[in-house]
Amino acid sequence: MSQVDLAAELGVSRQTIIAIESGKYSPSLPLAFRIARFFDLPVEKLFDPDDEEIDV
Amino acid sequence: MNKRHPRFLAPFATLVAGTIVAGAVAIGHTWAGAIATEVVTVIESGIYYLVTGSDSDIGAIYRQRTDERQREVRLKAVKLAFTVMMISTFVIAVIMVALGDQYWQESVLWCAGGLTFLFGLARYGAHEPRDLGTGGIMGADRSWETPRDSETHVER
After folding, report:
1. Does the structure's ipTM exceed the value 0.85?
2. A-B C-beta contacts closer than 8 Å
3. CB under 8 Å to B52, separation ≥6 — which residues?
4. How far does A39 lie from chain B, in Å, by closest CA?
5. Which tens digits make up the pLDDT trace of B88-144?
């Protein structure tokens, strides 16, 4: 799946997906839960405050 | 215009504002100055049109189609612009005072910016809900207690 597809699925921009992946932006709780629901993973599996990069 | 043609909003607003300024220049100054102002305005509108069409944060912000991160970017940019404007206004006011010139325009800008900032703090800041009592959330947590429960009993 491309960043464009994921962005369209989550209702955010491609730049935001890139920023989340590179750890430059921490998403809001609603968006974090949307991402977790999309990947069918618990949110704490995807986001760790100690990690710099997203775990996808 | 915003919903139907979001790409045209920023260029159109720039064109209208620039044309108003050009009109003011034509009335108060010279036609040559007005024409120069209008030419700069048209060029600026064209640049806005190109930027607004790009697949970037700036493009999304000018199209007013932003997600949560881009709204944060916009807020940070507005904060930076406000800070620079307030400092510039202060510096210009000091220079005007030193030159013995009028400085009421800068004072108006300074006061408007400062008072709007205070209004924003009051308007958008978090407030304690009034129905929770003086103890706020902690007070609300103990609201089930009767006054007698919370009294301190001293054994004699």
Report:
1. no
2. 27
3. B6, B7, B9, B10, B11, B59, B62, B63
4. 20
5. 999 999 999 999 888 888 889 889 999 999 999 999 988 877 665 555 555 555 544
